[in-house]
Structure formats: structure tokens, C-alpha cells
Design a protein that fits this description.
The protein is α/β, with parallel strands linked by helices. The protein has two domains: about 160 residues, no CATH class; about 130 residues. The chain is about 40% helix and about 15% strand. The protein has nine helices and nine strands. Strands 1-2-3-4-5-6-8 form a seven-stranded parallel β-sheet. A two-stranded antiparallel ribbon has the order 7-9. α2 packs parallel to α3 and α8 packs across α9. The protein is globular and about 45 Å long.
Length: about 280
């Protein structure tokens, strides 16, 4: 159940940059409900899930409160605790907090740990690539060391981390993509979410694509990379997502991304053709 806490991002508001990451549209991954009180967003989300279940003749599913929009810890610790409180009080089975690794410090860590004492909670941290030159080109505003430090701190505090990675980033070779998988294996993240590189309306990458400066992977290229990426991850890492849902109203390219089911079928066929499974190529001892 996606929630929008009405927060921004340090590389949108001028703290470290403006305009956001090159792949991120102005709306980010938010719902646009940032001005709606969180308790109301939760009630509406639970009602929507219940209605969908009723139409299928099913019981309402257990829900997770997903603080998804922009950087959901980009607030003082006292404010962060206030933002988490509605989900802690709601009939949800846990919390997901999506943020950047550079939006965490001592007091904010404490707020997250306190929330995790009350309900299951995991952190989703944007990485995209383990290569600093790629992160600089994307305008991320942090390096891999920052991400690694946040993962290590989370593990020390007993918080689970899900890393976000984009396959097919500009200028990256297959070898670099596999190096990102191996870096995540070494860090021992709890989970991974994979995304295909997408050109979305309003994102800075859109200018490069429309000017002919950006080439994109085919669905088959992506499937080969995703298969190898999975094979380079330890079996115990949970895969929370294999491919992203862009929303067809804002997708510019590649067109194949709009059919997620077809992409997943191509990936499944690639894994079967090569008799490949998660962990098969993992170098982690």
C-alpha cells in the first residue's frame, strides 16, 4: 500500500543538487497524495484493497504500509517519528521505508529502530549501481561507500535492507552489472529489487534519448543480464521485484517495458534455456 509522506529529496531541493536523478521524473515514484494526511491515505488504501478482494470473492489481504515517495527519511528524527506513527497505529502487518543512504543519521536510525520494535520494518535503499562513475553520471549525489556504510549500520541495528538496482544504465557493460551483483552479495543485503532502465516523461534521460544520445537494451539483452544478475546473488537474498511497472502514461521508451508479463516470460525462458538459478554463479564464500 503506497504512501506519500510529502517529503522531498536532497538532490531535488538544492541541498546536494536539483532536478533529481537522471532517470527520475518530477513525480518520482510517488502517488501525488503528499498533502493528504497519512492516516487518511492508509484508510483509503485499506478500503481499496478490501474492495478489490471482495470483487474476487476473497478476504482482504494483510497490508504493508509502504512509505514510497521520494526519500522517506528526509526529515528530522522527530518529524520522521510523527510520519511513521499512523502506520504503527493502523491495522497493517508491517512498514517499508524507502529512502536514500545519505538520508540517515544517528537520530533517524533511532526513530527507525523504535518503529521496528513495534512492527516489522525494512528499509529500501536506492543504489542503482555499485560504480561511482555511473552514480556521478546519474546525478545520484552519493557514492557506493555511502550505500555500503548504510547497509552495515542497518545490519548492526537489526534492520533489513532491500537494495534497488537498475539494469541497462548508460555506459555500463555486462561485467559492471555483474560486479554490482557481487558487491551486494558481499554486503549481505536482505533483498533486492530489480528495475529495467526506462525513459520516463520529464526525466533528464528523456532529453538524451530524444536527441539520440542514449541507446537502450532490448528485452533479450535485459533478460540475459537479469539472469546473470540473479545467478550472481546468494540464494538467501530475497528478490522483491524482477521488473518495474512504469505506468504507460509516462513511459517514452523502451516500448517492451510496458508489457511486464511478456518480459518476465522472456526472463523465465532465458533461465530455463541456460539451466540457471539464483546463486549458481555466486562467488561469495
Amino acid at each position: 500500500m503506497p504512501l506519500d509522506a510529502g517529503l522531498s529529496c536532497p538532490n531535488r531541493d538544492g541541498s546536494i543538487g536539483v532536478g533529481g536523478c537522471a532517470f527520475c521524473p518530477p513525480s518520482g515514484s510517488g502517488t501525488g497524495l503528499g498533502k493528504v494526511p497519512l492516516d487518511q491515505q492508509i484508510r483509503q488504501g485499506l478500503a481499496r484493497l478490501a474492495s478489490q478482494a471482495a470483487r474476487r470473492g476473497q478476504k482482504p489481504p494483510q497490508a504493508l504500509a509502504y512509505y514510497q515517495a521520494f526519500s522517506s527519511t528526509y526529515a528530522p528524527a522527530s518529524k520522521l517519528s510523527e510520519l511513521l506513527a499512523p502506520a504503527l497505529a493502523a491495522p497493517v502487518c508491517g512498514l517499508i521505508v524507502s529512502t536514500r543512504p545519505d538520508c540517515l543519521d544517528g537520530p533517524r536510525w533511532e526513530a527507525l529502530v523504535e518503529a521496528a520494535r513495534q512492527k516489522p520494518l525494512w528499509l529500501e535503499l536506492g543504489l542503482q549501481s555499485a560504480h561511482d562513475d555511473t552514480l556521478t553520471a546519474l546525478g545520484r549525489g552519493h557514492d557506493f561507500a555511502c550505500f555500503a556504510s548504510a547497509v552495515k549500520q542497518a545490519k548492526q541495528l537489526g534492520l533489513k535492507v532491500v537494495a534497488h538496482v537498475i539494469l541497462g544504465l548508460p555506459g555500463e557493460s555486462m561485467e559492471q552489472v555483474m560486479a554490482t551483483a557481487q558487491a551486494l552479495a558481499e554486503l549481505g543485503v536482505w533483498g533486492v529489487k530489480l528495475h529495467q532502465l526506462m525513459v520516463l516523461e520529464g526525466a533528464r534521460l528523456a532529453d538524451d534519448y530524444l536527441a539520440g544520445r542514449l541507446s537502450l537494451w532490448s528485452r533479450e539483452d535485459w533478460a540475459r543480464a537479469a539472469a546473470d544478475f540473479l545467478a550472481n546473488l546468494p540464494k538467501e537474498i530475497l528478490i522483491h521485484r524482477l521488473a518495474a511497472d512504469p505506468g504507460r502514461d509516462r513511459l517514452i521508451a523502451p516500448a517492451w517495458v510496458a508489457d511486464k508479463q511478456a518480459a518476465l516470460e522472456v526472463l523465465a525462458a532465458e533461465l530455463e534455456r541456460r539451466d540457471l538459478r539464483q546463486g549458481d554463479l555466486c562467488r561469495k564464500s
